[in-house]
């Protein structure tokens, strides 16, 4: 099973936790427009409890005319040798294989829109042309991470949406196109936590307890679907179209902040990617949404101030519930919270209300907080 090459990774920043009681002491009242965070249902609550994440970024790739203008994403260019990648061939990640003008990649007359990540059908210097896009932010800690994707129907590639800190702290959603069998309705999805145990096994997590192979009830290459993982304090939950696929717990769950990666590659490894593909293969991503707590301690005071210096008592405005995306609205991504800026297409982030300019509102690196606690603050209960 493949893992990232450590030398090509940025390191994440330190971890800091703010307790619920500390948040209550700092709160005075709420700021409108999700200033105190974004919530999901608490998987451990039978009484409608929620978990709150204080930061977010969203990208609607269907509205982003030029990927080079993105504030959130960086196209990567690097090489991995056949030996380092444990494959028959090397991997050549190229910026030119990533574009939001995907018509130049399409040969089937498709009207799909979004970000295209291409794997080339012809070798270049004994390496397979591949594609990788990384988030600029590397402080993504506990959170809910979602991507709308349509995979390739071409045999012999690995398409992945994952979170990464290092080779032993990694959360993966991976599609191996060679495994799909439309005649028998077999569409496996590989869910992986890379851990010290998987590293000792040659980055093969299958026998470590941190791997699940789930058969999807739909063909992921036929339409867009949302794939999601919730990285919480003691577990990682995996979803497709908001339906739970797996719940992984234990010491393999990461403990730090990292960054998001979209990748599409092949190296001829018959036990994983297979291939190389006989022709160009395309992974299409229409959006990514990230709702999270930052692991950077330097942003703590800024986010707390944004939540506490308010002029409203409307709890629903202060903490926004993240809507579930189903197969019916995965093509559009449903609701986006961030306003879109003129000339920069489909990237949203919170507004700085003092000057009206759009700017990133950094997250408080807090523990998982219940919305009830925030509501008490907003209603003047403390």
TrEMBL record:
Residues 45-296 form the GH16 domain. Residues 1-32 form the signal peptide. The keyword Coiled coil does not apply. CDD domains: Glyco_hydrolase_16. SUPFAM superfamilies: Concanavalin A-like lectins/glucanases. The keyword Signal applies. InterPro entries: Beta-glucanase-like, ConA-like_dom_sf. It holds the Pfam family Glyco_hydro_16. GO terms for molecular function: hydrolase activity, hydrolyzing O-glycosyl compounds. GO terms for biological process: carbohydrate metabolic process. Keywords: Signal. This is Beta-glucanase-like protein. It comes from Hapsidospora chrysogenum (strain ATCC 11550 / CBS 779.69 / DSM 880 / IAM 14645 / JCM 23072 / IMI 49137) (Acremonium chrysogenum).
């Amino acid at each position: 099973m493949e893992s990232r090459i450590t030398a090509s990774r940025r390191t994440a920043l330190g971890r800091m936790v703010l307790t619920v009681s500390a948040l209550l002491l700092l709160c005075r009242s709420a700021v409108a427009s999700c200033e105190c965070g974004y919530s999901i249902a608490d998987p451990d609550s039978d009484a409608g409890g929620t978990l709150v994440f204080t930061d977010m970024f969203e990208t609607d790739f269907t509205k982003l005319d030029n990927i080079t203008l993105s504030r959130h994403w960086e196209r990567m260019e690097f090489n991995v040798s056949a030996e380092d990648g444990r494959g028959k061939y090397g991997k050549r990640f190229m910026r030119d294989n990533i574009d939001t003008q995907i018509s130049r990649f399409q040969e089937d007359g498709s009207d799909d829109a979004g970000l295209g990540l291409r794997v080339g059908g012809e070798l270049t210097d004994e390496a397979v042309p591949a594609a990788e896009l990384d988030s600029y932010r590397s402080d993504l800690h506990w959170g809910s991470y979602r991507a709308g994707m349509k995979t390739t129907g071409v045999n012999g590639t690995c398409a992945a949406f994952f979170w990464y800190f290092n080779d032993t702290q990694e959360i993966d959603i991976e599609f191996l196109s060679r495994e799909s069998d439309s005649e028998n309705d077999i569409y496996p999805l590989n869910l992986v936590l890379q851990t010290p145990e998987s590293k000792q096994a040659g980055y093969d997590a299958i026998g470590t307890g941190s791997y699940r192979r789930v058969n999807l009830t739909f063909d992921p290459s036929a339409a867009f679907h949302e794939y999601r993982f919730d990285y919480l304090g003691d577990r990682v939950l995996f979803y497709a179209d908001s339906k739970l696929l797996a719940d992984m717990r234990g010491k393999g769950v990461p403990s730090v902040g990292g960054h998001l990666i979209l990748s599409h590659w092949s190296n001829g490894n018959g036990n994983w990617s297979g291939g190389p593909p006989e022709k160009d293969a395309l992974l299409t991503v229409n959006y990514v949404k990230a709702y999270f707590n930052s692991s950077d301690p330097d942003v703590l005071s800024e986010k707390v101030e944004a939540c506490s210096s308010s002029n409203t008592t409307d709890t629903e405005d202060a903490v926004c519930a993240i809507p579930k995306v189903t197969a019916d609205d995965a093509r559009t991504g449903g609701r986006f919270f961030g306003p879109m800026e003129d000339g920069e297409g489909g990237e949203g982030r919170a507004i700085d209300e003092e000057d009206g300019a759009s700017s990133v509102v950094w997250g408080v690196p807090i523990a998982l907080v219940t919305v009830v606690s925030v509501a008490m603050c907003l209603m003047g209960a403390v």
